[in-house]
């Protein structure tokens, strides 16, 4: 993977100094992403590593001690980290970052990896991110920002984004849990999306107090993630996720039904171009704007005929991208996270397996709308015994007799590696075949849509 050093610093400390006996790490979050992070941290060579997770889930509880504090109660989390002398805190999701958890922890002298509040605006505000990209000449879709439904409708009527039958993307400005983006195929659909987002209140006042209207880009999507310490960065294997609930990319968008990492996701030439035109200008632009970026940056890309274009920024691991990426990590994740907080990433090995990987999400009946919960899950132990397979828990609970029960929409992420993508997918689906519960559904074409023609998207 690629690495870039902007400047050397005599203040950099050897990362080995951070290797202490009895190290305690707190992971914040409760989904499959946090289970994968906890699993990767638990593989550290440190003999006395102790993991905690707030609030965690039943699967994570096999690796980490659960902490009954909400991921968004940042004051209580800081108090807990201080009282328990936590050595390092790892933030899983975007909400605590947007609330300023990193700023709070650092103000109390607590070590934490993640984006500070100002940097988190790259995800928490679509308009902020688009203006940032325009200011630093980072390639993205044409856009306009509207602060009222009337203004948004006027923008549509202006013809700036094409005729009545042209596709256009409407995005709620704020965090919306993956539900704030609509790819409208017609003007009518766009108008309905504006009214749904801005007038119905379905996403909350803050999320849709303004909207971003964009041209719809055509091409293939890819996700490029990286670790950053404010000066240096290290790329992760590029990934491609599958958002729609139905096979052949049909049905409503979800939080993610599966993901693959493979050399075909981004060829070397396109990867170099994405680094040169997107990654480095983004990190340098953050420094120029006064908020050097630390933690994890997730760049959603559309691979158009004119080159890669940024669809969105996230300031944390994706879900389920994390599952498929971290099973390929060969270095110590504790060292890497520690390096992002200390500015020592250039001195820290970040090595990845050359294998491909895949994750297939198993969801409950009703997802992504109202998911049914409480169904008994069978076959988890058999699935976990499959070669090259890891089963990550996103929404599970334990019953009174210790049985596994569904407790969310996305329940499990069955993940596997292989010499190539076909082998990784075969292992995934073999393991999926061992698992069952009433109402379980999943996509059977994860990784298989990569050979289809161009798609229009604007996530």
Note the topology.
Blueprint: E1 3-5, E2 24-29, H1 32-42, E3 50-55, E4 65-66, H2 74-83, E5 88-91, H3 94-99, H4 101-107, E6 112-113, H5 117-124, H6 126-135, E7 143-146, H7 149-157, E8 168-172, E9 181-184, H8 187-198, E10 211-215, E11 217-229, E12 232-235, E13 239-241, E14 244-246, E15 250-253, E16 258-261, H9 268-288, E17 294-304, E18 307-314, H10 321-326, H11 333-342, E19 356-363, E20 376-377, H12 380-384, E21 389-393, E22 396-398, E23 404-406, E24 410-418, H13 421-432, E25 455-457
Parallel strand pairs: 2-3, 2-5, 3-4, 5-6
Antiparallel strand pairs: 1-12, 7-10, 8-9, 8-10, 11-12, 11-17, 11-25, 13-16, 14-15, 16-19, 17-18, 19-24, 20-23, 21-24, 22-23
Q: What summary fits the major beta sheet?
A: 6 strands, antiparallel
- Fraction of residues in H or I helices: 25-40%
Globally, the shape reads: globular
* CATH level 1 name of the largest domain: Alpha Beta
Strand content: 25-35%
Q: Rg, please?
A: 21 Å
CATH topology name of the largest domain, in short, is: D-amino Acid Aminotransferase, Chain A, domain 1
Total of helices: 13
**Termini gap:** 26 Å
Whole-number mean pLDDT: 91
Describe this entry's structure for a reader.
With 459 residues, the protein is an alpha+beta fold. It folds into 3 domains: 22-114, Rossmann fold, CATH 3.40.50; 148-209, Dna Ligase, domain 1; 218-452, ATP-grasp fold, B domain (D-amino Acid Aminotransferase, Chain A, domain 1, 2-Layer Sandwich), CATH 3.30.470.20. The chain contains 13 helices and 25 strands. It has helices spanning 32-42, 74-83, 94-99, 101-107, 117-124, 126-135, 149-157, 187-198, 268-288, 321-326, 333-342, 380-384, 421-432, and strands at 3-5, 24-29, 50-55, 65-66, 88-91, 112-113, 143-146, 168-172, 181-184, 211-215, 217-229, 232-235, 239-241, 244-246, 250-253, 258-261, 294-304, 307-314, 356-363, 376-377, 389-393, 396-398, 404-406, 410-418, 455-457. Strands 1, 11, 12, 17, 18 and 25 form a 6-stranded antiparallel sheet that branches. Helix 7 packs antiparallel against helix 8 (187-198). The model is unreliable at 5-20 and 451-459 (pLDDT under 50).
């Amino acid at each position: 993977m690629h690495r870039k050093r902007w400047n050397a610093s005599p203040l950099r400390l050897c990362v080995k100094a951070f290797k202490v006996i009895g190290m305690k790490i707190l992971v914040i979050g409760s989904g499959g992403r946090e289970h994968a992070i906890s699993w990767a941290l638990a593989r550290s060579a440190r003999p006395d590593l102790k993991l905690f997770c707030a609030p965690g889930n039943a699967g994570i509880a096999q690796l980490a001690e659960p902490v009954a504090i909400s991921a968004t109660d940042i004051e209580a989390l800081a108090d807990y980290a201080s009282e328990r002398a936590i050595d390092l805190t790892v933030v899983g999701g975007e909400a605590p970052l947007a609330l300023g958890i990193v700023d709070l922890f650092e103000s109390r002298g607590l070590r934490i990896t993640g984006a500070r509040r100002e940097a988190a605006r790259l995800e928490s505000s679509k308009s902020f991110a688009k203006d940032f990209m325009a200011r630093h000449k980072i390639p993205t879709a044409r856009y306009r920002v509207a602060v009222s439904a009337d203004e948004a409708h006027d923008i549509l009527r202006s013809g700036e984004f094409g005729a009545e039958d042209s596709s256009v993307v409407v995005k709620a400005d704020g965090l919306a849990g993956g539900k704030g983006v609509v790819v409208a195929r017609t003007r009518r659909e766009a108008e309905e999306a504006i009214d749904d987002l801005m007038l119905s209140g379905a996403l909350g006042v803050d999320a849709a107090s303004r909207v971003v209207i964009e041209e719809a880009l055509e091409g293939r999507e890819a996700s490029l993630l990286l670790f950053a310490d404010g000066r240096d960065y290290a790329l992760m294997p590029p990934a491609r996720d599958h958002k729609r609930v139905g096979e052949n990319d049909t049905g409503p968008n979800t939080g993610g039904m599966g993901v693959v990492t493979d050399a075909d996701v981004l060829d070397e030439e396109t990867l170099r171009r994405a680094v040169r035109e997107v990654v480095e200008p983004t990190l340098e632009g953050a420094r120029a704007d006064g908020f050097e970026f630390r933690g994890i940056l997730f760049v959603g890309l559309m691979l158009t005929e004119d080159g890669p274009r940024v669809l969105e920024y996230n300031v944390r691991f994706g879900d389920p991208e994390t599952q498929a990426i971290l099973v390929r990590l060969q270095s110590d994740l504790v060292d890497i996270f520690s390096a992002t907080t200390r500015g020592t990433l250039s001195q820290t090995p970040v090595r990845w397996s050359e294998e491909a990987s895949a994750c297939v999400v198993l969801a409950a009946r009703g997802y992504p709308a109202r998911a049914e919960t409480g169904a008994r899950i069978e076959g988890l132990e058999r699935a976990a015994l499959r070669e090259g397979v890891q089963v990550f828990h996103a929404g599970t609970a334990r019953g009174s007799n210790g049985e596994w029960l569904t407790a969310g929409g996305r329940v499990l992420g069955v993940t596997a590696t292989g010499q190539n993508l076909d082998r990784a997918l075969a292992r995934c689906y073999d393991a999926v075949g061992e698992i069952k519960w009433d109402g379980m559904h999943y996509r059977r074409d994860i990784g298989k849509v990569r050979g289809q023609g161009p798609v229009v998207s604007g996530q």
